[in-house]
Known about the structure:
By secondary structure, the chain is of the alpha+beta class. Helices cover 26% and strands 19% of the residues. It is globular. The chain has a single domain, classed as 3-Layer(aba) Sandwich (Glutaredoxin). It has four helices and six strands. The chain has a four-stranded mixed β-sheet, covered by helices on one side. The chain has a two-stranded antiparallel ribbon with strand order 1-2.
Amino acid sequence: MTIFDVDIDGLTGGPTDLDRYRGSVLLVVNVASRCGLTPQYDKLQPLYDTYRERGLVVLGAPCDQFGHQEPGTAEEIDEFCRTSYGVTFPMTEKIEVNGAGRHPLYRELVGDGPDIQWNFEKFLVAPDGTVAARFSPQVAPDDPELVAAIEKLLPH
C-alpha cells in the first residue's frame, strides 16, 4: 500500500482520488490558517505553479492539532486560502496527523518515524508513492535543499 491507495475527501467535499497522482511527485503539507508559519502559503503556491507542468502536486492537509490554529470549517479554510494566498493546489479535508485519530494518509507518510512536530511539516513523495524526504516545519518551501530534492525526482 502507498499513499495513492488511501481514501480521503477533498476540502470542499467529495473524495480526492489520490491514485490520479500516481507517477507524480507530491509535496504533502499539514497546513493551518492561524499559525506563525501560515505565510508559507506564499511560497507553496509559486512552487506549485513553477513545477506542476513537470509533475509536482502540492497537497495541503488542514489540521487543527497544534494550538487550535485551524479552527474553521472547510468553507472558511477554502475561502481563506484562495483569497489570502491565491491557493489553487489541492487540499484535503481537515484531518488529524498524530495520535489515535491519525488519518491513514499520515499513517503511510509517517510510518515508524516520529510524530509530526507542528504545522507545515513537509513530506516529499516519489512517483512510486514512497516517502523520499521529510522536512521540518521551519524549512521554507523555497529552501534550496527542498527545491533540489523536488527537482531530483521530477522528469528532466
